[in-house]
Write a structure and sequence with these properties.
Layout: E1 3-10, H1 14-25, E2 30-33, H2 64-76, E3 81-84, E4 88-94, E5 97-102, E6 106-114, E7 118-120, E8 136-137, H3 140-143, E9 151-155, H4 159-168, E10 174-178, H5 188-196, E11 200-203, E12 208-212, E13 219-226, E14 229-233, E15 236-239, E16 243-245, H6 248-252, E17 277-279, H7 291-314
Parallel strand pairs: 1-2, 1-6, 2-3, 6-17, 8-15, 9-10, 9-15, 10-11
Antiparallel strand pairs: 4-5, 5-6, 7-16, 12-13, 13-14
Helix pairs in contact: 1-2, 1-7, 4-5
């Protein structure tokens, strides 16, 4: 017989962990299923790959991994919380709730929360597929130390790209940020750090159109000349060009998404178009996506699920 929970939370990042903590405080039995990226991403999610977090209230400066561990510790201090590192393969609507099938088991949730987050967009240019994991990386914190005293490039212009460049500058002798638009979009404090770091150079209004190398990355081809050449020699490439929303499981049961693939929620309740189904964090259509907003949405979703079950008991 499948185990039954008041809420099954798909996604074991900080959003899902916070939701389970809050659900437990409301007396709800919750199951958190991780590994939704289809990778060996640690419990705690993408933020564990962030060097330092400086915008989470209560912590002036903390590593992403430490923050995730603290939220996990809080969640697991409640006996009502169960966490399993299992990839969810299918969700089905059933009488009175939802059947959730993972690679290891089948579970039943009276309500369900999608906190599945995102995955990194791949670099899709000539030569990139052949050199995947041979000098092309998506995690500066994970792989930056491999490039001590070498030359690396960060592709992208977001705040994440800026943070990656700052991490890489601690190891590499030279870091290029290659961005297709006129100015990178970093937070002011990180933009200032970029400008003050002599190791970092920004190449604007330029696209990477190819990756070169035989058995490992040796450089990139640019769509316009830089210092008289379209070929830029690099020992490694770090890709920060955005994310894809992991909303496929939700779509399969009829949850509505927008054109970008974000799950559409009621911003005040985190409800989706299906009763008893909620979404929170990066996968939801919230304009501002940060750990603090994801954690808040997770707690809101847990409370909304509690209210839903309470109302259903009255019927």
């Amino acid at each position: 017989m499948e185990k039954e929970y008041d809420i099954v939370i798909i996604g074991a990042g900080v959003t899902g962990l916070a939701a389970s903590m809050y659900a437990a405080r409301l007396g709800m039995r919750s199951l958190v299923l991780g590994k939704t990226h289809g990778t060996e991403m640690p419990i705690g999610g993408v933020i564990t790959t962030t060097d330092f977090v400086e915008n989470y209230p209560g912590f002036i400066r903390i590593t992403g991994e430490e923050l995730a561990d603290k939220i996990k510790e809080h969640a697991t201090s409640y006996k009502e919380v169960e966490i399993r590192k299992e990839k969810v393969e299918k969700v089905e609507k059933k009488m009175g709730g939802f059947e959730v099938k993972s690679e290891k088991g089948t579970y039943f949730g009276k309500t369900i929360l999608f906190a599945t987050g995102t995955k990194w967009k791949k670099l899709e240019v000539a030569g990139a597929k052949e050199l995947e994991n041979k000098g092309i990386s998506y995690c500066a914190l994970c792989d930056g130390s491999l490039y001590k005293s070498k030359i690396v490039g960060v592709i992208g212009g977001s705040d994440s790209a800026a943070k990656d460049a700052l991490v890489l500058a601690e190891h590499a002798k030279k870091v290029y940020i290659i961005y297709r638009k006129e100015k990178i979009r970093a937070e002011p404090i990180n933009l200032k750090r970029i400008k003050n770091n002599k190791k970092i150079e920004v190449i604007n209004l330029t696209n990477v159109v190819g990756v070169i190398g035989k058995n490992k990355v040796e450089g990139v081809i640019l769509d316009k000349a830089y210092e008289g050449r379209k070929e830029l020699k690099l020992d490694g490439i770090f890709v920060a060009i955005g994310h894809e929303f992991l909303s496929g499981l939700a779509k399969e049961i009829g949850v509505k998404t927008n054109e970008k693939g974000e799950i559409i929620i009621n911003k005040g309740t985190c409800e989706t178009n299906l009763p008893g189904v909620y979404a929170a964090g990066d996968v939801a259509n919230s304009r501002f996506k940060q750990a603090i907003t994801g954690v808040a949405e997770g707690c809101i979703a847990a409370f909304s699920a509690f209210e839903f079950l309470k109302d259903r008991m009255k019927d």
